[in-house]
Amino acid sequence: MSGPRPGRTHDITAARHDHIVEHLKAAGLGALADLGFLGLDKDCNNQVVVTGYKAARARKLTTGQKTANRIIAAGRAPVEHGFAHLKTWRILTKLRTSPARATNLLHALLVLTNLELDR
């Protein structure tokens, strides 16, 4: 989890700033990402960030591309559900403190959420 950023910061900008691709490669990991991360990982031979396919007005998706998008979405669903679960902690919506404290609070909520789910 990275530190706080202004709400207007685009996902791919934050990922580039935090060198996500380099960290994933160093750890030998990969990531499934939404279409907001298209173009993040430009290394076609050793790609670690997998995104779906984006349709355009002039170019519709093929059946294979649609299937690939569904598989990626199914893999990302548990993570999205985890984010939704964190949002049930209403304190995050009413937080009026320093962004640094908000990051520490979110770390604590992750621990509490994991404890809650383990029961």
How would you describe the overall organization of this protein?
By secondary structure, the chain is mostly helical. The protein is built from 4 helices and 2 strands. The chain has a two-stranded parallel ribbon. It is globular. 8% of the residues are buried. The mean pLDDT is 83.
How would you briefly describe this protein structure?
The protein has 119 residues and is mainly α.
Topology:
Elements: H1 11-17, H2 20-27, E1 31-32, E2 49-50, H3 63-86, H4 99-118
Parallel strand pairs: 1-2
Q: What share of the residues lie within helices?
A: 40-55%
DSSP helical segment count: 4
Oligomer: single chain
Broad structural category? mainly alpha
Would you report the number of β strands?
Answer: 2
Query: Which value, in Å, is the CA radius of gyration?
Result: 17 Å
Distance between the termini: 24 Å
| Major sheet | 2 strands, parallel
